[in-house]
Amino acid sequence: MGLSGKAAKAAYLTWRRPSVVAPSTISRTNVATPITPHPGALPCHYPNVPFRAPYTTAVTTTSTISSSSNTVDLIDELDKRGLIQTITSRSLRSHLASSSRTVYSGVDPSAPSLHVGNLLPLFTLVHFARCGHKPIVLVGGATGSIGDPSGRSTERNALDKITLDANVQGIKTQLKAFFENVQEYYHHHRHQYPRSQDVSFPLPPQQQTEFESLSEPAKRDGEVELGMGVKLMNNYTWTAGVTLLDFLGSVGRHARLTHMLARDSVASRLNLSTSLSSSSSSFSSSSSSSSSSSTKGGGGMSYTEFSYQLLQAFDFSYLHRTHCCTIQIGGSDQLGNITAGIDLIRRTSGLTISEPAFGLTLPLLTTSKGEKFGKSAGNAVWLDQSKTSDLEFYQFFLKTNDNDVQRYLNALTLLSGQEVEEVMKQHTEGGKEKKERRIAQTVLADHITSLIRGKKNVEKCKALTDILFSHTTTTTCTATVQGEQMVKNALERLDLSSITKEDNIVTELKKDQVMGQDITKLVVNAGLVKSRAEAKRLLASGGLYINNKQVSKDGGVGLMLVNETDLVQVKGQGESGRGRGAVCLLRAGKGAVKVIHVT
């Protein structure tokens, strides 16, 4: 039941902001006394709002753990993996331990694809699901039209609805593939993860009945099952029908400008050193140029961006009311928006418990040098295959610095802490020579590429890596039997059907375009060099190779190309043999490489 009259006024006057604590201050002995929930807190009954129970879908690939001694302490697990920046209350640990909770993280559809910087909250949701909690991924079909100002010095370009809807659909596809791959991974590795099984918290019988009876109406919010029990929702579903007057009356009246102006996303965009009066006097003179100046970062921020934190708070409040969602996670730049949601829930929920909601922020994904990854940083590695090819994605992680690889293995893989330690032990034992084999980086690249792009593409990337970079295993790219055989073995493993145009590595040529042709003409047709004159210079300097075998100049007129023994037969995949054919590797200089598919 909600509060009213004097009780509501008293609750309003005694309201306090949530405290923010670092993970290091949270320990098993430093936990606030568990709060006994108000009878109406779970399920969350609100006046004039239909009750909707939390999700009941459990992870079907794992079994229930009934013994508390076998369960994972989620806060400890996340902290060890480097996935906690701040927590809004020490009580979060006891909150998670007392029952199965619903947690959500938002995704901004300002681009047609997610990037590797978005993976930290997704992996965090996976760990919540493993421990029996119920994650929601919330895509901003409504808020994406505004754009989150957090971490930005300029205003985002507005997206039209067609573009925004296309972005939402693309992100939905990527999320579904990720969580399905995660679920498949746990299905095949259950015996290796005895501590990572689903912890199903028992619910009172009367609540189980309510959950089952309300499972169908819950789908009216456009929920999509992603895998691992994770749900996808779109905030456009409940935001589109809210009028401005309704929003101001139900959300705006509870917001305090003091708090809104103090949030980092706002304060960093405003010149707070000037007085409010001088800001007011300059408003009229600058209004005509506000649009252009804001784009340059010198005009503060628009009211649209300023109100973004209220829209995100509205999302948290809505999910809390309708799905009993009590936890929001996000990047460290989202702390202000998260606490805005907690403030709104505390003011409007009518619950008597002091902490009806919690927030958990994650560190931003950076290199050891402090470099960020993402759209704003201009170095995004996209999850979308059309924006970052499979090979580029794989190579990005394969090239990870030694100073970063252990941190990435903990945060961006599903390997246990013990497995990560074993990988790092193999990586470091044997000194510099062993490290050059990049054992840890290979495990990282294999694992994360499998989860994002699928197992099939991992095999493709490994084969292409061996093909394209096998010459680097020797000091020079000489005509050695070892180098030639190495690349032939790698070519035999290649599945041509898995190669996409984004990989930009295979060129198809007719047999009569290859056999008997001057090599200087062939390298031009393959797109390795721009002219035959350039090809002739490379030939003269010993810079042309077939299957890592150096091509020697023949009488000053070039060389007739490979014979049949230089072509490698690729069998293809499945009974149909799709992807079969004859191939060879053509290299011009150090970096220009093509796989020639003879058709």
Automatic annotation (TrEMBL):
One of its GO terms (cellular component) is cytosol. GO terms for molecular function: ATP binding; RNA binding; tyrosine-tRNA ligase activity. Residues 276-298 are annotated as: Disordered. GO terms for biological process: tyrosyl-tRNA aminoacylation. InterPro entries: aa-tRNA-synth_I_CS (IPR001412), aa-tRNA-synth_Ic (IPR002305), Rossmann-like_a/b/a_fold (IPR014729), S4_RNA-bd_sf (IPR036986), Tyr-tRNA-ligase (IPR002307), Tyr-tRNA-ligase_bac-type (IPR024088), TyrRSs_C (IPR032005). It holds the Pfam family tRNA-synt_1b. Residues 276-294 have a biased composition (Low complexity). SUPFAM superfamilies: Alpha-L RNA-binding motif (SSF55174), Nucleotidylyl transferase (SSF52374). It comes from the Eukaryota. The keyword Cell wall biogenesis/degradation does not apply. Residues 501-598 form the Tyrosyl-tRNA synthetase C-terminal domain. Keywords: Aminoacyl-tRNA synthetase, ATP-binding, Ligase, Nucleotide-binding, Protein biosynthesis, RNA-binding. Its EC number is 6.1.1.1. It catalyses: tRNA(Tyr) + L-tyrosine + ATP = L-tyrosyl-tRNA(Tyr) + AMP + diphosphate + H(+). Belongs to the class-I aminoacyl-tRNA synthetase family. This is tyrosine--tRNA ligase. It comes from Melanopsichium pennsylvanicum.
